[in-house]
Specification:
23 strands; about 35% helix; FAD/NAD(P)-binding domain; single chain
Length: about 525
Amino acid sequence: MYANTSGNVWGDETRMTGNNGEQDQMNTGHDTRTIRRVVIAGGGTAGWMAAAALSKTLGRVLDITLVESEEIGTVGVGEATIPTLVTFHRLLDINEQEFMAATQATIKLGIGFEHWRDRDQHYIHSFGTTGKDHWTAGFQHFWLEGRHRGLARDYGDYCLELRAAQEARFAHLPNGGINYAFHLDTGRYARFLRQFSEGFGVRRVEGKIRNVLTRAADGHIEALELDDGSRIEGDLFIDCTGFRALLIGQTLGVGFEDWSHWLFCDSAFAVQSTSVRPPIPYTRSIAGVAGWQWRIPLQSRSGNGIVFSSRFIDNEAALATLLGSIEGEPLLEPRLLRFCPGQRQRSWQGNCVALGLAGGFLEPLESTNIHLIQRGIVRLLQCFPAVLSQTTIDEYNQQTAAEITHIRDFIILHYHVTQRRDTPFWRAAAEMSIPATLQHRIDLFRETAQVFRVPNELFAENSWVQVMLGQGIEPWSWHPVTRLMPDPELSGFLEAIRSTVERGMRQLAPHQQYLERYCPAPA
């Protein structure tokens, strides 16, 4: 029932094109052409996520075309996601078991940070909620008071997802009782979404884009010209061409805001390897001399990579570090990726919206890149215009910039707040000036144990608390309401939470066993 409807259902009177439409544009200062034809330039994760969401929700009123070339590889620096992808799939009615089997996915409950606070010190940033808040103060205040009195256990003992990650256990619990995400094969994910999208009427065109044609009147994109001379015309274009930013950058000239003075890493090697052990339900992030390595377990293989700063280590040394540490046999030649951390100055310009790497890139430390694609798509759908409106475009750009800025600060936190001084990289990260927005959060937590969440921000209070504690920030004080609880009451409060977590743990199965039963990948 959601198949794309084309033909003359619109009727000439509603198309708003030709001389009448042009006259209206001149009179109002707005482009009054009805948006009917959407062209997605580029495939990969960004292109096919956009195609899937647009076709499922608006496929009956839009003609959607995706242009991609098999000759152009896609960038896959990471294969880890965060829980917002679960929501995205539910919005599209994607069957989770089919998706996980098709992409060889495993469960992810958080990220393990090894050697970040200092060498040989580890912690987990989990997806769950830790403890129980009071309306006056978050749980961390009661935990800090309990630790001060010798009544509290490790902070992670009060979080089900963190304990499950440590014990490599998982199960779907009633009423959304456990938060989770996925490790997945991004190439297989794009193919899975392609099949999904084509079922809702998306037309895929194979070919390389030779030229992007613009209208003389307003500079908006008119068509993509392919190598074979064919033209793909559209009313709205979505740039998923990766770092090339062929539409938003090269054609429309939207500049790029460089954040490399805060985020030093500008290079990565990625390689797949055979699996040698059952998959664990969290991503491993292992800090090194000039960056960090990832380990991502799938059902039938592992993803490995190293993210590093070319200012502090050369390619050969970084590659040797990666190859010398992976488990199993490499399945492909390692691929080198160069990038500049930052964001496009505007994600939406004229009739072009940039998604994924075309719009900006933050290294995959907290697995936010697929999330930012998803948020860009959802934001576009929520404000999808019948005709182009500069007010809508401005609001989209403002929201996009604010969201990535908060994520940027969260990632900088990992590098700047550390006790490591053993290499030039870590000394430079600790000594650099940081954004005032991040400095305020750090000072507030260090002085008062308080955290706050900006409206619509990705990372909730518990994420900030886990990482700040994990990176070594020790609050000097905490809320005085905690001192009103006598020892038996505070001890009972903490123990009740821990006991609830342990009861939840007894409902979980070994991760590997659960995967084999729930979503086994085809042999």
